[in-house]
């Protein structure tokens, strides 16, 4: 069946059922997000509903013995030195670990730092890392420009590769498989349980960039060993901080990850931790609204003659939709759009420039709607679904959905008539 026929069927689906499917998971985590990692009143003492922000570097001790004892407790939430952790960092780590279903979480100063940290922790010179070809571009550049210089071999697999193909690509030296699901820019949802089988069958760890799926995908239930979060996106939610997190599923991996974070100076400021913890409180209600608006816009875009394909995991025409339906409890507000191949890149860029409601800028996950061309920003070693026509990425914010659709309509009308 062609993508256009699939799109027509999707447009005719019961829209309310589709809206429920993309937002169910966000409603389910609402109570957790409000209550996780908060202080509990005890002994008659009142507490603020928000944990206090403590800014500091030096920690004072009552004696040298107490200072030395604290130095041996680097794997808990003890205060030793500001660069090793602060009270707000530990609260945020507790919150993310709970949401992700992890045993431990390490906060990092950015999403890219979070992507780098497990690679530094779990790869050695001479080891091999197999990466999804659709992985986040800066992660790929770090692997190519930094890890290779230190003797780590990198190779890439098609995000929709079969289990047999992946087993052939693994080697005796394979120490990690790193994937991002849905894929960055191309939105292929991958079979995480299958990837876990392959990784563990070769004695390797499965590392999943779960930024798109926080709260609606439980990576450790599906076999992941490590989960990466760019907390800058959905958890912080207000485009006002840069922060990341790495979660693990066992004590041994936690100790190695924690040591690597300390040794490489990975720390986020208390203010960034406080902003992110505050953002988590409203994450489900924001994303319930934004995910429903996003599916409304995605279905509408499929009806447009200028559009060849919409890459939204909740739509049956998106690669890996069956895995999304099986493994996810909802969807997020970021998706891709492929125009017909007879449109040129300059035409698409003029169309984007004509949008009035969408900001043009990097990142996503905040309250604001964004658009970004991705055709020039995609690096691939394997064939990609996005190679079939000019492609752009949309993030749907909290604006009125009909206002966003009207803006896209006038821009696409201009594209069809060669205006702009």
Automatic annotation (TrEMBL):
Q: Which domain of life is it from?
A: Bacteria
**A family per Pfam:** Cys_Met_Meta_PP
Q: What is its EC number?
A: 4.4.1.8
Q: Which residues carry this modification: N6-(pyridoxal phosphate)lysine?
A: 233
Q: Which SUPFAM superfamilies match?
A: PLP-dependent transferases
Matching InterPro entries? Cys/Met-Metab_PyrdxlP-dep_enz (IPR000277), Cys_b_lyase_bac (IPR006233), PyrdxlP-dep_Trfase (IPR015424), PyrdxlP-dep_Trfase_major (IPR015421), PyrdxlP-dep_Trfase_small (IPR015422)
Ordered alphabetically, the record's keywords are: Lyase, Pyridoxal phosphate
An example GO biological process term is:
transsulfuration
The answer on whether this UniProt entry bears the keyword Cell cycle reads: no
Q: Which Gene3D superfamilies match?
A: Aspartate Aminotransferase, domain 1, Type I PLP-dependent aspartate aminotransferase-like (Major domain)
Q: Which reaction does it catalyse?
A: L,L-cystathionine + H2O = L-homocysteine + pyruvate + NH4(+)
Q: Which GO terms describe its molecular function?
A: cysteine-S-conjugate beta-lyase activity; pyridoxal phosphate binding
Enzyme class of the recorded protein, top EC level:
lyase
> So which cofactors does this thing need?
pyridoxal 5'-phosphate
Family to which this protein belongs: Belongs to the trans-sulfuration enzymes family.
Query: PANTHER family, alphabetically?
Result: CYSTATHIONINE BETA-LYASE-RELATED (PTHR43500)
* Protein name as it appears in the record: Cystathionine beta-lyase
State the gene name recorded for this protein: metC
């Amino acid at each position: 069946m062609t993508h256009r026929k699939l799109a027509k069927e999707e447009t005719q689906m019961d829209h309310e059922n589709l809206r429920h499917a993309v937002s169910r998971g966000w409603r389910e985590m609402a109570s957790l997000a409000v209550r996780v990692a908060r202080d509990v009143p005890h002994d008659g003492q009142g507490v603020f509903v928000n944990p206090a922000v403590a800014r500091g570097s030096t920690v004072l001790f009552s004696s040298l013995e107490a200072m030395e004892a604290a130095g041996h407790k680097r794997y808990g939430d003890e205060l030793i030195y500001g660069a090793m952790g602060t009270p707000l960092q530990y609260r945020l780590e507790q919150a993310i670990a709970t949401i992700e279903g992890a045993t431990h979480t390490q906060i990092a100063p950015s999403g890219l730092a979070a992507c780098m940290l497990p690679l530094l922790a779990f790869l050695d010179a001479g080891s091999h890392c197999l990466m999804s070809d659709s992985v986040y571009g800066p992660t790929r550049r770090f692997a190519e420009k930094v890890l290779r210089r230190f003797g780590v071999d990198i190779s890439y697999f098609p995000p929709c590769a079969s289990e047999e193909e992946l087993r052939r690509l693994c080697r005796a030296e394979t120490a990690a498989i790193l994937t991002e699901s849905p894929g960055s820019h191309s939105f292929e949802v991958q079979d995480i349980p299958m990837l876990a089988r392959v990784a563990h069958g070769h004695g390797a760890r499965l590392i999943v960039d779960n930024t798109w799926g926080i709260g609606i995908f439980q990576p450790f239930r599906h076999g992941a060993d490590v989960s990466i979060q760019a907390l800058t996106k959905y958890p912080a939610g207000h485009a006002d901080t840069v922060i990341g997190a790495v979660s693990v599923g066992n004590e041994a991996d936690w100790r190695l990850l924690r040591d690597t974070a300390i040794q490489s100076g990975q720390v986020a400021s208390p203010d960034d931790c406080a902003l992110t913890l505050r953002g988590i409180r409203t994450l489900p209600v924001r994303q319930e609204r934004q995910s429903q608006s996003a599916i409304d816009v995605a279905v509408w875009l499929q009806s447009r003659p200028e559009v060849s394909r919409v890459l939204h995991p909740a739509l049956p025409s998106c690669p890996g939709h069956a895995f999304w339906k099986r493994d996810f409890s909802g969807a997020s507000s970021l998706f891709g759009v492929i125009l017909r191949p007879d449109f040129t890149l300059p035409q698409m860029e003029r169309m984007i420039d004509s949008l009035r409601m969408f900001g043009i800028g990097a990142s996503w996950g905040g309250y604001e709607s964004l658009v970004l061309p991705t055709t020039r920003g995609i690096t691939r070693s394997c064939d990609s679904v996005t190679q079939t026509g000019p492609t752009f990425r949309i993030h749907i914010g909290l604006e009125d959905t009909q206002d966003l659709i009207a803006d896209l309509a006038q821009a696409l009308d201009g594209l069809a008539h060669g205006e702009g």
